[in-house]
Prior knowledge:
It is a single chain. The chain is α/β, with parallel strands linked by helices. Helix content is 31%, strand content 23%. Helix 1 (22-36) runs parallel beside helix 2. The protein is globular and about 50 Å long.
Amino acid sequence: MENKNIYFLADAHLGSLAIEHPRMQERRLVRFLDSIKHKAAAVYLLGDMFDFWNEYKHVVPKGYTRFLGKVSELTDMGVEVHYFTGNHDIWTYGYLEKECGVTIHRKPLTTEIYDKVFFLAHGDGLGDPDAKFKFLRKMFHNRTCQRLLNFMHPWWGMQLGLRWAKHSRLKRADGKEPPYMGEDREHLVLFTKEYMKTHPNIDYFIFGHRHIELELRLSKKADLIILGDWIWQFTYAVFDGEHMFLQQYIEGESKP
């Protein structure tokens, strides 16, 4: 029996105040998920699918109904959907699991898929030496800080999160990440090379976070893939059980 495909994508940042046409962006993502639903055994969403996501006890963020509905359809069909929290969507406390049927991962995951070993993570905090980012990441993951955020009225909490995320993105030129900096400067590449020294069994390292498309052969066995994003590039990786491809979704068709 032929294997069904495994899909990997990241960084849609749905709801971003810095995206000009957010509804069109969400519909494009939903059309992609609809196009693969009969071909997929599993979909791995490697973080920051929302620009800011915070659940309160009886309240979840407004919007995203098309995306959440399509994810729920996939899981209802028996497609595994794995959701990795990134640095924009840490604050999930059970809604996505209970209502949408996804499996949440809060840490990097090493897993075997079709006899290949994968190391999967959003990528934030891996090899990045920036002290300010480390401090913010530690604060965002702190349970006391998370509880304090949830003491706010949901309107204030969501406004704070979305405006913070917008400010962060607009500090960059055109709202985009810097281009590929080379093997000796990319934090995720440096992290992976170091990690490989003690974990030589891994075949594929796959990350989001950086918003660049990258396929890099690191050894005879190991490949590194950075997935791009679903803001500008609409890229994803697909594994058919034997081969891995990084592809771009263009209005209803996949372009290698």
